[in-house]
Structure formats: C-alpha cells, structure tokens
Amino acid sequence: MFGTDNFLTSKLESAIGWARKYSIFQYPFVTACCGMEYMATACSHYDVDRFGAGFPRFSPRQADVLFVVGTISHKMAPVLKKIYDQMTEPKWVVAFGVCTCTGGFYDNYATVMGIDTIIPVDVYIPGCPPRPENVLDGLIKLQDRIQAQHDGKPLARPDPRERSFTV
Amino acid sequence: METQDASSLETRDMLLNVGPSHPAMHGIIRIITKLEGETIRDIDVHIGYLHRGFEKMSETVSYNGVIPYTDRLNYVSPLINNMGYCMAVEKLLGLTAPERCQYIRVIMSEISRVTDHLTCVGASAMELGAFTVFLYMIKAREYLWELVEAVTGARLTISYCRVGGVKADLPAGFEEKTRKAFVETRNVLKEVDKLLTANRIFVDRMKGTGKISQADAISYGITGPFLRATGVNFDVRKACPYAVYDRLKFEVPLGTVGDNLDRYYCRMEEMEISMRIVEQCLEKIPGGPVQVDPETGRPIPAAEMVDKGKMGRINEIAGKTAVTDPTLEGASDRVRSTIGVAEKRVFLPPKEDTYGNIEGLMNHFKLVMFGHGIRPPQGEVYQAVEGANGELGFYVVSDGSDRAYRVRVRPPCFPIMSALPKLLVGEMMADMVPTFGSVNMIGGELDR
Amino acid sequence: MNAPSLSELLKTKAPEAVLAAHAWRGDETVTVSPDRLVEVARILKEDPAFQMNFLMDLTAVDYLTFGKTAQGQGAHANTGIAVRQPMNISTEEPWPGRASAARFEMVYHFFSLPLQRRIRVKVPVEESKAEVESVAAMWATANWFEREVWDMFGIRFRGHPDLRRLLMYPEFEGHPLRKDYAVNKRQPLIGPVN
After folding, report:
1. What is the residue range of A107's domain?
2. Residue A109 sits in a domain of what CATH number?
3. How many CB atoms lie within 10 A of CB A56?
4. Domains of chain A: total
5. Residue C147 pairs with which residues in a beta bridge?
6. Residue of B384, B395, B400 lying closest to C59 (CB–CB)
7. Is the peptide bond preceding residue A90 cis, with omega within 30 degrees of 0?
8. Residues within 8 A of C (CB atoms), B 160-199 only
9. Structural domains in chain C (count)
C-alpha cells in the first residue's frame, strides 16, 4: 500500500499538480515591446486571472514562473541569470516573444540569441509580439507541463535545437 | 542620563540599487541612489539594458527594411516613429506623399499618441496604487488597438508606413469604428478623471514632486509634454509643421509649475485634443474616408484585368481600379495613387500589376530584391516629428547606395532621463515612483 | 520667407571658423573647424541673431566606407546582375558633399525657440586625433549625448565631467557604430558566443 507508485500518493501528486497549475505566481521580467502585449493579456480584455495567474510577484523569492518578456541584451543577461538562480524550486521559465526564443531579428553585437543559451526554458511563445491568444495558449501548455510533472510522467524540456516547432 | 542630540549620532549614506528589474520602473534601467534616511542625496542612472543596435541594424537592411526596426523604438506609439522615418527618407528623395496619404498618417499618428498617453498615465497610476485606473486605460487601449488592427493588420508592431506612402488605404467602415472607439475612450477618460483628478492621495503624491524649471528643462533639451508642463510653448506640430498639421485647428495644453501633476493634466488634455484632431481629419480627408474609382464608378474584377493584360490590351486597363481578392492588400474600392507617390523608383506597384504584366513584375523586382531598391541621392537630412514624449528626430545620411549609410534617431525621452538627477535629488525616495512614471521612459527609444 | 540665411550670418560673425555652408533640402548646415567649435557654439547660444537655446541632437558619422559599397558604384550586385546606377530622383541641385576628408564628423543639431529656426553644425574629426571640446557646460543635455558618442564611436570629449560608456557595459571592447566593427561580433558576459 505504501511506496512510490500507489493509489494514494499518485492522487496526491495529481492534486498538487492541479493546485500548482492553477495558482501561478509569475515574475514578469519585462524588458521591451512584448511587455505591452503582456499588459494586454494580464488586463481585463484577455484576462489571465481566470487561469489563476493574475497575481504577479515582483520578487524572485516569491515567484514560481519566470516570464521573460522582451529582448535580453548582453548587458542584461547576467541580471537574468541572477534572478533565475534566486528563484526557488519548483520553477518554470516561459520565453515570451521571439527575441527571447531565438533573438528575433536583432542579430547583432548587443542581443542574446535566445535565452535558452543562459537558462533552461520550458515553453516558447513566439511572436513579435505574440497576440494575447498565443500567450494564453502558451500558458495552457505550461499548465499541462506543470500537471504532467506531478503525474509522474514529466514532459521533457524541448531540445533547444528544435525550438522552432511547438511541442 | 545625558541625551545625545541627533547631530552627534554618526550617520552614513546608504547606497540603494533600484535595479534593472524593478516593478515600478517602466523598463529596465538601474538607478543607484545615495540615500540619507528617505531623502535622495545623489543618483546615478545606468541605461543601455535594452540596447538592441537599431542604428547598426539599419545600415544592413534596405530603406524600407528599417521600418520594422522603427516600430520597436517607441513601441507604444509605433506609427509616429514609422511616419518620422518615412518622412525623413522622403525629404532625402525630395518627394512628398500624396495628400490623402498624409491625412491617413496624421490620423494614425494621433491614435498612436492617445495609446501612448493611456499607457503612461495608466502605468504611473498603477504604481501609485490606483490599479483600477490601469485596467480602465488598458481597456480603452484595446479598443484603439482593434481600430489600428483593422487598418494595419497588427496591434502593436504595425510597419504601416512605407517610403512614399502607406501600405494600404483605410478600410471600409473606418469612420464608424473610430467613432465607437472614441466614445469608449472618452468614457474611460471621464471615469479616470473622476477617480484621480480630485483624489487627495493622488494629488498629494503628484503635486510638488519632480519639479523642474523652464530654464533647466530647455538646457537639458527636454521637449514634449514634459516641457509644456513647465509652461514653455513648444510643439513640433505648431513650430515646424509637417504633413497636414498646418491646416488643422488644435490647442497645445501648457502647465505652470512643471511638477508631476501638471504633466498628468497635460497628458489627459492631449488625449482629448488628439481625438479631436482625428475627427477633423476624417472630415477634411480628400476623397472621403472610402475611395471610389472616379472614372467609371465601377471596379473591374482582378481576373478580368489580368486576362486583358496577358492579351496585351493594356489601354483598356490602364488607370482602372481592380476588385482585388480579399487576400491581397485590404479593401477592394480604393485608388492606389492616393496612398503612395506615383514614383516607380520608390513605391511598390499594385499587386494587379505585379502579377498581371511584366512591367509591374520588373518594377517590383527592382524595388524589393537584394542589391536593388530605393536609392536616394547622396545627402543628409534631419526630420523632426512630435512624438508622444517630445521631438522625435531622424537624421538620415545616404551615400547613394541601396542601404542607408547612417540612421540616427533623436530619442525624446533620452534628455528627460539625463535630467533625472535634477528632478530627484533632494526629494524623498517615494517621490521617485510618480516622477519616473511621468517621465514615460520607453526602453526601446531610450536605448535603441 | 526672406529671413537671412543663418549660415551666411554665421560666416560673417566667425569667418575663419566656417569651412563650408549649404542648405540642402532646406536644412541649414555649416561645417566648422574643430578648434573653433566652442567659439561658434557660444555665438550660436548667446548672439541675438541665433539664440539657439536647444541642443536637439549630438551625434557622429563614420565616413570610412562612404560611397565605396559595391552597390553604390553601380557594380555587380550580389545577384550577379549588373546594376545600373539610376538617375537622381529629384531634379534639384545635388548635395555639395563634405568639406573635409576626415574619417568622422560630429553633427550638432540646434534649435532656437524664440526664432523657431534650426541649424546643423558639422565638425570634422580625424581618426588619429579623435578628440573634440565638450559643450556640456553650455547645454546640460550634451552630457549624455557625448557619452553615447564616446561609447559608440570612440571620440573623446575634452572637459567632459564624466566620460564613460552609456549604452554598452564597461567590459565591452571596441566602439560598435564604427564601420569596421562587424555587426554580429558579440562579446557576451555570460553564455556562448554563438
């Protein structure tokens, strides 16, 4: 009856997964134009609060999802790494906008070509900027990932070499 | 026991890093403050966290290819940036866009200005605790963005203007949509006015903080609502009129003291004035809001036009309007010459020509393919437009090749940010929040 | 308008300082020699004929590859097709060109609020001696603009209170907007150099 794989603990794990996915405390690391679409998604019209993600926590110690919104330059990269390191487990990272996924069209001396070169990323939301519907789609995929982590069958992190395709 | 008076206690200034990732900072900058208690003694502002190499990138793409980069400069009012850049290159070429196109650009610029001020006032109110105001203003901004999407196809990064014109004409029903959007926006502005303008907490935090004198503002090169709040009457639309602003009647709101509250008033007034400008333009725009082919009053289906072109009956189709497939270029009843200059070396031919006859295809090829493209003569120009934060200037140097040699953007919030020590030293720490909010720093513009 | 040309006026006030002047496309432009910059700036600020109280913009241009790109000369484009240089689109008089062959040129844009006039001042700067006097004492806005020019072009400003990098991080080596700095030459602080 007791052990890692039995009925009670797996139901408990699912319940924890369910609770975690509907109470996302995000840290919106907003830098650029995608921030405007992030604002639009968070506000009344497209309302991210109905997914339980309406409460941004502006401290990495209190957040569990790091939304990296907008271009990351090389000057900003150490700051991003520091904030990622300061977050406590369990934590997830969402790369919001194509500048964080692959660098966007800023292929130059100043821009990091994809934040997955610095920190591991769970969900990529491409778009320049992504429409709020895209963001909500990405959020739902993140929720699936959070649930799956607790159902004992975690979804593998997308291979950075295949990052142009959705999971 | 003897009591020591406060002056004999040892004090030390504290260095507080208001770091790059901070909730109340509209963008990523680092402000290193030296605090004595709550009072700010000295600040050092570090910017450049969003430097994306706009000026270097614009040397690697063609003239029209710079337009998406300009969208992302001041990303809350992208149409103003587009317009400024396109007008600079047109000045270099010595061309003027057709009249209707200029009216369209002015309409879209003013709508962009309203969205910028909505975002600025909303975000700075949110930082002072008025979260509802933020939600209301973003709601109004959504209506305007739906309007922009109906015209340009995108909400935020629109790449709408082209060198020599705009991408496509206003769609059918634009006037009606605009009126509805403005009704909603005006309602929101009324509600916000009731919530904030006489609100004791809001007024106490904004009044008297972040003051700057007229002489200092001019010395720091500050323009826009920030300068007008100090009482200096300088608006690029009035001082150096461009496009059709000299035919429009509008006032310029001026403040008196130059503190945060005056800037709030200026921005609220400017939103209303911008909406009135759009309404005036919709009345004055030549050809009315929706265009009709003047000759026959009846457009020809595009397939018929293509057939005639293939059979060589060019004179039967020259100058006629085609009813295009809805997947090509928007509204079906428009006349191409009103939205772009009739200059083959600059403005793309209509799609009916590109797909219909070989001359159009060659014209398209010569403008779009790598190595070809618009080639302005050698020279340099400076074109200033009134951005939402102040004078947005584009200095373009051309060496006669298909790529710009140097594109310099004079960002309006750059001098305002450099004046931050002047605004904040001597104030309390908590005054940094409303002052920084009213600066309306946009990272894309500041760092480029 | 019959307003006197500002560049002509400046030539009469500071004749040895002005190297060239034109008003191409309506923009009054004067080229000034670098050692006379402060004198000319003071005239522009204080003289009642100019009253340039706004320093709108301060930047530099690197003329290293001006007119030397293959496309500019009408040679073969990358596509292998010979590209013929088209005629100038405008039929007005052509740009008079630069007054000197120095690599850099500082460009100052001034605006006079009382007179509502603009003027552009260009100062040629040699590559070997990339230094100019700072005007930060006259217009407070020049402080950050000059820091940016130092950061992007490597031109020093004598008398600047605090000349350090503005947009790039201190560990960055080189000056990105120079024509000989490759556009995607990255110097990351952390992470790979892609």
Report:
1. 27-151
2. 3.40.50.12280
3. 19
4. 1
5. none
6. B395
7. yes
8. none
9. 1
Inside any domain, residue A161 = no
* Beta carbons of B377 and C95 less than 8 Å apart: yes
| C146 domain-assigned | yes
Torsion sign (Cα): B252, B256, B258, B262: negative
Residue A1 lies in a domain: no
Secondary element (H or E) of residue A150 = helix A132-150
Q: Answer whether A77 sits within 8 Å of C190, measured CB to CB.
A: yes
Beta strands in chain C (DSSP E): 18-22, 29-32, 54-62, 104-112, 117-125, 131-133, 156-158
> Do residues B254 and B217 lie in contact, with contact meaning Cβ atoms separated by under 8 Å?
no
**Minimum-distance CB partner of A118 among C169, C182, C191:** C191
In a domain? residue A109:
yes
Contacts of A112 in chain C (CB under 8 A): 188, 191
**Mind telling me how many Å the CA of A28 is from chain C's nearest CA?**
22
Residue carrying structure tokens 């959070």: A146
List per-residue pLDDT tens for chain B, 448 residues long: 455 565 667 777 888 888 888 776 677 889 899 988 888 888 999 999 999 999 999 998 888 889 999 999 999 999 999 999 999 998 888 888 888 889 999 999 999 999 999 999 999 998 888 889 999 999 999 999 999 998 888 899 999 988 888 888 888 788 899 999 999 999 999 999 999 988 899 999 998 888 899 999 999 999 999 999 999 999 999 988 988 899 999 999 999 988 899 999 999 999 999 999 999 999 888 864 443 333 444 556 666 777 777 777 777 677 666 665 544 543 333 456 677 777 777 888 777 777 777 877 888 888 888 777 788 888 899 999 999 999 999 999 998 888 889 999 999 999 999 999 988 888 888 888 899 888 888 989 998 8
What chain B holds in terms of domains, given with CATH numbers, is 54-289+375-446 (1.10.645.10), 300-368 (no CATH)
Q: What are phi and psi of C144, to 5 degrees?
A: -75, -35
Q: How far apart are CA B198 and CA B188, in angstroms?
A: 16
Nearest residue on chain B to A42, alpha-carbon basis: B135
Residue C75 lies inside a defined structural domain of this protein: no
CB of B49 less than 8 A from some CB of C: no
Of B52, B71, B119, which has the smallest distance from its Cβ to A71's Cβ?
B52
**What would you report as the CA-atom Rg of chain A, rounded to the nearest whole angstrom?**
16
- Residue C110 is part of which domain span? 1-67+94-194
Partnered with residue A28 across adjacent β-strands are: A67
**CA B222, CA B415: separation in Å to the nearest integer?**
6
Is the bond preceding residue A160 a cis peptide, omega within 30 degrees?
no
Please tell me the distance from the alpha carbon of residue C115 to that of residue A152, in angstroms, as a whole number. Answer: 75
Are B439 and B414 contacting, i.e. CB atoms less than 8 angstroms apart? no
CATH of the domain at C114: 3.30.460.80
Query: Residue B165 and residue B163: Cα distance in Å, rounded?
Result: 6
Per-residue tokens: B90: 């047109």
Side chain identity, residue A13: E
Residue C169 lies in a domain: yes
Measured between CB atoms, which of C181, C189, C194 is closest to A113?
A: C194
ipTM: 0.90
Distances (CA, A) of C129 to C107, C125, C147, C157: 17, 7, 17, 11
A20 domain-assigned? no
Contact A74 C186 (CB under 8 A): yes
Least Cα distance to A150 among A10, A25, A22 occurs for A10
Q: Best residue in B52, B54, B56, B439 to probe C by mutation, most C CBs within 10 Å?
A: B56
Token digits of residue B173: 């029903």
C129 inside domain: yes
Tell me the C-alpha distance between B126 and B128, whole Å.
5
B229 with C149: CB under 8 angstroms? no
In degrees and rounded to multiples of 5, residue A91 shows phi and psi of -140, 150
Distance CA A41, CA A25 (A): 15
